[in-house]
Records
---
Amino acid sequence: MRRTRKIIPAALLALAVAACAPSTGAGAPPGTAAATPLPGPSVDADFDLDALVTAAKKEGSLLVYDSSGDIEEVAKAFTEKYGIAMEGVKSDTPQTAEKMTREHAADNVTIDAAMHEDGGVLVGQLIPQDVARTWVPADLKDQIPQENHSPLLALSKATVFAYNTKLSPGGCPVKNVWDLTEPEWAGKLVMQDPLGKPTVLSFFTQLDAHGNQALEQAYQAKYGKALETGEKSAAYEWIKRVAGNRPVLTGSDEDISGAVGAPGATDKKIGFMSISKFRNNEDKGYAQSTCAAMTPFAGFSYPKYVAVATKSRHPNAAKLYVHFIMTEEGVKHEIGEGGVSGNATVKPLVTPPGLDDWQARLFHTDPKGLLGDLQNRQTVSDFWRVNHG
């Protein structure tokens, strides 16, 4: 049975994170490296997979948290392979971070490992505070690009603009991201509330960090003139206009998928949703596809990292899980509807509808900007709140 968790408001988590996140050097601008270097990944010099399996079996069980319900399928496969009772719990990213922090402080750790979509909290809070740490399987180390080691990138997923293919048989009716700021699309963009979705907030901060030129060029292409704005950047101007155009906010991608692609849908809407929801095309008869030709991007990719709890009571089982998720046998349950493994030898399993070029059609998260995402989160949250309200 899938478990659901209450969303912790982003503002509340940000305050808690700010209290324990490492500070930058005096006068350092947002987004610079922490004063104390991030601890490097742990790699067992005498690694032996068979010995790890034996030790993990003696520990007997494993609990892993993830923001995706796919973790339940991963747990079944892990238990079947190793005979170790693994429980996979779907939990919203902010609550997982808070729970791991509280358990660590209380010396009462139940979560052995977790999949983290919120890289900012991972590198700004959990790892520096020794709540969690990165462990890289030595036998897979050379298959994982060096830039994916710290923190350990398990996979990348994507959130895309999607449309109903039956209502718009000629293709996505939105061609440019600035279209979504126009009156004709007022109230027709359906998306998760950014204040409860760290990946969307990180998209906003990353867009401001290295997406302004693309947004300016897209504006010029649509309107035939240069963007003029009183905001700090093109990204903030776009965020302001989207927020003010009355987007419909939900608490889940499943609700977005239903609003856009359900068989009974009669109103053209654009969904900003996870590619995992394209499974509804087959499972529920939905008609939805990526707005693949949108300028300058059709959505954004985001990293999902894996880390073990420092005080785990099942440390060997936690390591074995990390090893499992870094192989095709484990990660296939997470990327079955689309995604890219952090292990370069694992090839993508499927192509999400309309997204035939992952690299070129998505805006990509820069892992060097994760700390900046955390530092700037409250600013962009407040900016969204003011302009949506």
---
Amino acid sequence: MSMVGIEAINLFAGTACLDVAKLARHRQLDMSRFENLLMKEKTVALPCEDPITFAVNAAKPLIDALTPEEKDRIEMVITCTESAFDFGKSMSTYCHDLLGLNRNCRLFELKNACYSGVAGLQMAVNFVLSQTSPGCKALVIATDVSRFMVEEGGEALSADWSFAEPSGGSGAVAMLVSDRPHVFQIDVGANGYYGYEVMDTCRPSPDTDAGDTDLSLLSYLNCCENAYLEYQKRVEGAHFGETFGYLAYHTPFGGMVKGAHRNMMRKLVKAKPADIEDDFQRRVAPGLTHCQRVGNIMGATAALSLASTIDNGDFDTPKRVGVFSYGSGCCSEFFSGVVRKEGQERLRALGIKARLDNRYELSMAQYDQLLEKSRELKFGTRNLIPDADFIAEARTALKQPTLLLKEIKEFHREYEWVS
């Protein structure tokens, strides 16, 4: 059977971040409840950042590492998002242009709430497996931005300001998919998917979210169990407690993952509380490390958890990683693949932790000002020149060339590289 999977993967988590414990105290939230989020920081998008800047900054190091011949074998670019700024034009066209890719390329976009990134990955995997173009590559970029906007006078547009605000992040994960799976070799055919109609969360308008958080939690738990049970039917001998060296869960916030893992271990492994906690720390916690510093980046979050697992796990010997993706509305999938030391070394060479460390930490006063600024970049913005002086120190925080939004002119977006 042909090998397929992730040849290279990279995370870009913006230029600015916020300490979410400080935010919780600033909002006067119940700190005993806040601790259950298991969150530390969140990426905050500046007015000069959008889903394209996050996407291209994530993909650029992967593309730059290719030879011209390898680069020309990228024959599909898929953007996966619920943060698009155009009802028709795909963001993949911007990414394709800014990355200088071959024009003999399929360009399109997927929307399916937080499941979109894995939907794009699986579509790319099957394109490579089809062998209709032997040796081809596909670039999958899951990119999402949370902007908590306020109306004139300071009233929140979002109905729930409480615990959604600390957990909502921004970022992108780029994945190069090919028949050279250096980083993550997919277990072909080892998939369990499960979906049904539920109104747990939705976006009734481009800039607002709505839903039922309790229903969303129940749907997540239901899908996690049933997607895995379908995987187990298809994969002979699969055992939730023994088959996987690590588990990477879609992570709206760490506490939700901890609850889901506890539920799975109780039902499927009949494990005791102390054993469940040990198992969580050993197999799940590595995947939360980066998620706790970025926040929920929706379509990119399952891939973020996988990247965090690879970056922070022990892969001196090859290990199988189980991945669970959930998207509200809903669709879910449990799949798996193998990670080797080479994959970890390739990922670590990109310095994700250092870039997270180098983000500019916003003060609460700056963050509140940013909420006001977010109104300028609402859906359908026709003309805008972002305020280049607004938190200017954050623009160069990463100490590396970074793509930023320069101008919106008659709806078309123009970008520039800033060092």
---
Amino acid sequence: MARVKLAYIGGGSTRAPGTLASFLRQAQNFAGSEIVLHDLDGDRLNLVCALARHMADVQGADLTFSATTDRRAALAGCDGVLSSYRPGGFEARALDERIPLSHGAVGQETQGAGGFFMALRAVHVARGLVEDMEAVCPDAWLLNYTNPVNIVAQAVADHSPVRVVSLCEGPIVFPQEIAQLAGLDPALVRATMVGLNHACWSAEATYNGAPMLPLLAARLDGDLPDMWARRWIELAVAMDALPASYMKYYLFEPEMVAELRAKATTRAQDIQAEVPDYWAHYREQLTSDTPTLIPERSRGGIFELEVAVDVMDALFNDRAEVWPCNVVNHGALADFPDSQVIEGPCVVDARGVRPVAGHRVPPAARALTGALGEYQQLAADVAWNGTRKQAVQALVSNPLVRTLPLAQTLYAELAHAHRAWLPERLW
């Protein structure tokens, strides 16, 4: 099995204990490996590191954990770098959600104006990260889980020699979620999702070996759990393809804005209210004889970033497995430029991560995903080295913004709110 050195950027986050639990569950695949945790918050970083060591000792896992607030020291000599960070924390995410909603636009972590400003902050950090990697671990893989994962990967792929793959569990869980809403067994669903991150569609979808869409169409005549279930299933049937759940923001935009504005709190504010209990739970497990993460008291559940661990296993242990990844297209999907970072099935082995060719985005979805691809490129360019004027141009190209007055207003307010996390060229 692979014996490697891995750095986890964001290793003091609320998701970190669950991520390390995912590594420990596959400890035999990384026997003898070293995982270095890095974060800006030294206290939380040390707590997570101590908990990881405790869980490893109890489980008899042959993994070594260390922690540092020095990023270059964490990266030195690494074979792989897992990045999952949030510049500005949940407070910044709450602004991404609340400010657009105040102007009647979708406020969301990865979509619309909120997603754009998350991209500006995330790529600003990623640029420094890959510069450090080029200096101290130039041959390492960057396995990115920082949102928006497609824009981060696009920016790095365009401007750095560092090998990058972005990861998201969406292509795996979206078909399972829609099956569950329809009263079907998620375990019997097989779907190939292609397109862009959070904007993927099924190129093929079966249920127990038979076409899935007719089953979904039949469910529309019966009772469904709620309006969202009906919308998602109706969208799949209308478009002849299973959609990513995020398509609701585009294809039911007025309804989604109304729902989000009707809520007293945003998703980020809801998470913020839960954060103290997460850390209380992690501290409790630090002194437990049998440390066990409880899903309800752990950010994201018991096991986090599992796809990243699976891809690392396939990559470093030469598994030749197929996993959904975000990588440069290189002609695999005819619907996008060769240089575009796309999401789809990829073969992962010691030679790298290669997208599987031959699939197409469903015809009815190509216009929207094409527009999102153009926006993705503009956002990646401006986040890496663009100006404020170019940023407004990128923002107005976003299908959830569209008008120049709205783009100018949102940019002014969000840039002011996030000034501490943006490069001066974007103020």
---
Amino acid sequence: MKRRDFIVKGSLASSAALYATSVLGYATQSANDTINIGVIGTGDRGGGLIPFINKIPNMRVVACCDIIPFRLESGLSRVNGKAKGYSDYRKLLEDKNVDAVLVATPFSTHSKIVVDALKAGKHVYGEKTMAKGYDGIKQLVDAAEASDKIFQAGHQYHSSRLYTHIVDEINKGKIGKITAFECQWNRNGNWRRPVPDPKWERMINWRMYKEYSGGLLAELCSHQLDFANWVLGAMPEKVMGVGGIDYWKDGRETYDNIHLIYSYPKGVKASFTCLTSNAMGDYKVKVLGDKGAYILDYVKAWYYPEGSYQKEIGEVDGVSGATLNWDEGKGMPVNFDHEDPSKQALIDFRDNLMNNTQPISNAKTGAMAALCVQMGLDAMYENTIVETKSKNVKDILG
């Protein structure tokens, strides 16, 4: 990448402004403008993103880092061309050939590594959830504000052009006044990764241990929390919830099922459920309004009109009751061509660096989702109602 200055002018904007729709397109740059990426953490997520980077013009992986040798070897094997391997991320950050890093390490390490990377002069794509704990969130936000480098939070659905289209339609009043969100992400399995040697248990299955992880809420529901914040342009006012280790009696510390309700301004309630004992419905987001609803999965969406409004649009060519394109229980499919959300998020990262633009999924929006996660964890673990007006939250949001 050419050694030019990338300066992000001004501090992070207000929450509502940060959720404005992006119009970023494909940058038209020369081969000399290739962005050299270092991947820190080459496990399931980091290693899984390398093939996407291989296919994106003007991006290439030149370095990988992981503390588990076979994970590092696996990551390097996925790279097109040659890449250096590191077991210490600090050594990778010293590599002058690396322009930007993708941080896909355990949740508890995000803040420290991202802050170090920004201070080392690297642009950063930081996987969700952005940071663990109130201190970690604040440290990362402060570092991003103080840096002239670009930070993008890895909530890939925020880059999905389908999700962006749905948000635009909601903002135009397509489903009327929003009253509720119903979100779920159910699986039938123990959520464990295979461990070739017991000594790697806590490193590989870090999601099962409170020291490193926020469990199902941080690893899965955080995407849907980010979406609810995006649609409403707001943080919830309070959260309550329960969870437990009720099915998998295998020594895990994080819950195997969670059920939370977040209360947003204007009376909007958002429920989030995640199971590991039953996969019915898999991943689903419902946005419910008084004129209709949108239902979204990973890459598809449906529009479900409500009541008399449903009857009105059902009169096709003047013939009442004419057949519409309709999926039972979901409504009318939303036909919208778009890239895989993870690939699109990386394309957006490239474009943000090329064009010196602020990501729509950035330190402030990432902090909002991370705060929702921490509030939910506090609510479940402490069996209490957690409010946004608490000092911990206000200190970060300002």
